[in-house]
Design a protein that fits this description.
It is a single chain. The chain is built from 3 helices and no strands. The chain has 93 residues and is an all-alpha fold. It is elongated, with a radius of gyration of 20 Å. The two termini are 17 Å apart.
Length: 93
Amino acid sequence: MTEHPTGLDDPEYAAFAWARYRRIMAWMTLLSLACGLVAVFGLEYFYGPLSWVAIAAAIGGIGGSVLMASALMGLVFLSSGSGHDEAVTRLDE
């Protein structure tokens, strides 16, 4: 007896969920770039002119941290919202 796939095992829902995740990540990429640029302008305001290495480090460090946090949180919500968390407990039974 086969049961109907649920969550990300269902190809139609998986396509929808991953498209939503990519859309969220596109917006979060723009937000992380904005955070990096705000940080650069703040550093230039308080410390004066910065070298290109300091600018790249600020954008990469701050923007990269925001982007990594949003990617990981997005995957947590994708897993929880798709039912994969419950599927693991069903395998134990």
